[in-house]
Design goal:
With 127 residues, the protein is mostly beta strands. Helix content is 4%, strand content 46%. It is globular.
Length: 127
């Protein structure tokens, strides 16, 4: 069983920045595709970003491309989501997810491709 724990959420004004972190308990973290998803009240969970096992490839939802950056530190079993130029519509619970290495090529934006999920961290952007 893999445990994922997100941190770094909070309240920020529009235009501000936040960095989310996700810590993994997996001994094979460096083989996993890691993703960030979010869910706003009354909405479906949606893809935000994904990163390949070695960090060389990334993928972003169109709504966050150019504003958010996903990265990872395999030595520390951590994945990050740097969020800049935040907008009120970015308000949501943000979830970290882990999937097999092949997830990145087979559909990193699909929640069904991921095996493990964190509990989520709330991000609120005020206008």
């Amino acid at each position: 069983q893999v445990h994922l724990g997100e941190s770094g959420g909070g309240l920020v004004q529009a235009g501000g920045s936040l960095t989310l972190s996700c810590a993994s308990s997996s001994s094979t973290f460096d083989l996993a595709t890691m993703g960030w998803f979010r869910q706003a009240p009354g909405k479906e969970r949606e893809f935000v970003a994904a990163i390949s096992w070695n960090g060389r490839r990334t993928d972003y939802a169109g709504s966050v491309k150019g504003r958010f950056t996903i990265s990872r530190d395999n030595a520390k079993n951590l994945v990050y989501l740097l969020m800049d130029s935040l907008k009120p519509e970015d308000t949501a619970v943000y979830y970290c997810a882990a999937g097999p290495g092949g997830t990145f090529n087979s559909g990193s934006s699909s929640a069904q491709k991921y095996d493990y999920w964190g509990q989520g961290t709330q991000v609120t952007v005020s206008s």
